[in-house]
Amino acid sequence: MSYSTSQPAPESDPSPIAPTSESNTPEPEKTDVLVQYVVLRRDLIDSWPLGSVVTQGCHASVSAIWANKDDPHTIDYCSPEKIDSMHKVTLEVKSEQQILNLSEKLKASSIVHRLWIEQPENIPTCLLQNLTPNPQYLHILRS
């Protein structure tokens, strides 16, 4: 499995999003960098336009963030102070069977993740895990 990382270029303007003053959500640990791991199917790049494959990762990322919007790590990851310095690592698997196998391994290890299924074709295209600092399951993602 290969991977790449990306971050946006820093902007000179501060984010227009204002922080909320009160929250009932516990604060996540501030010592670790939160990383969102995105796993895409490599075989789709050979048969789909590149933009369509990138779009699958975008759909899955937004879906995973929204599904976990109340999680302290997600709130921290999307905070006004960090919105312009998100960390993502993009990994690839070779085929549909590999992404399904990865999803099953994560389920068996009780690891919260989201398998994006493109509709109406019902094609599994991308997988994302819930945000956590220093994930102890990287060996599963990289295997």
UniProtKB/TrEMBL annotation:
<dbReference type="Pfam" id="PF01981">
    <property type="entry name" value="PTH2"/>
</dbReference>
<dbReference type="InterPro" id="IPR023476">
    <property type="entry name" value="Pep_tRNA_hydro_II_dom_sf"/>
</dbReference>
<dbReference type="InterPro" id="IPR002833">
    <property type="entry name" value="PTH2"/>
</dbReference>
<feature type="region of interest" description="Disordered">
    <location>
        <begin position="1"/>
        <end position="30"/>
    </location>
</feature>
<keyword id="KW-0378">Hydrolase</keyword>
<protein>
    <recommendedName>
        <fullName>peptidyl-tRNA hydrolase</fullName>
        <ecNumber>3.1.1.29</ecNumber>
    </recommendedName>
</protein>
<dbReference type="InterPro" id="IPR042237">
    <property type="entry name" value="PTRHD1"/>
</dbReference>
<dbReference type="GO" id="GO:0004045">
    <property type="term" value="F:peptidyl-tRNA hydrolase activity"/>
</dbReference>
